[in-house]
Amino acid sequence: MAIDRWLLEQHQSGHPPTLRFYTWSPPAISLGYHQRQYPEYWQNLTWQGQKLDLVRRPSGGRAVLHQGDLTYAVVTSGLVGSRLQVYEKICEFLIQGWRSLGVELDYGTAGRGYIHNPNCFGTATNADLVLPDGAKLIGSAQLRRGGVILQHGSIRLQPDAELFDQVFGAESFRNVQLPQSLSVENIIAALITAASYCFDMQIEVKPLSPLEWEEILAKLISEVGSQVI
User: 120, 127, 130, 190: which is the annotated catalytic residue?
Assistant: First the structure.
């Protein structure tokens, strides 16, 4: 989350747009920026001998369990239109990328009733992407700073039903049916290709440098004292 926020600040300073993919180790629950209520026992959950981290996103929305998922982040600017129109412009690369893998996605239809559900994947709004059977595959959220946008989201791949039950309750779990042959590497490659086409840009794959890591960590440490989960 600190890296995503740092990337947004870098783009505000003139750096190019960024497309980022990552997974979580150990698993974690991310809370929406404005989400203040959540079960107290979430602070003491473990999975396979590891404590689940509890972190706050810079974006809004409900809680997301990051285990068996792939997270994406897009940092860009210059997009015009309503919040929903901007969502759709950014989500187009997700739709096209998954289509190239043989998976059709469409937008959810749920209204704002999601604000009463602590589980992001408990409902699918028109900013989320669902499979043909209605199961939510991708939940996304945004942060805007002037004309700069951070949109990131969780792509459910192989969620553990028992862990999901511990966090949200068994009635909230709905399995996703994806082709067995898909690997995380295949998915990322397809989404990068689709992003190049949808955003009409060349993408350079580049890891963070040691100096950038130091800058991010220093900024995070300086903020820890003022951040309360």
Answer: 120
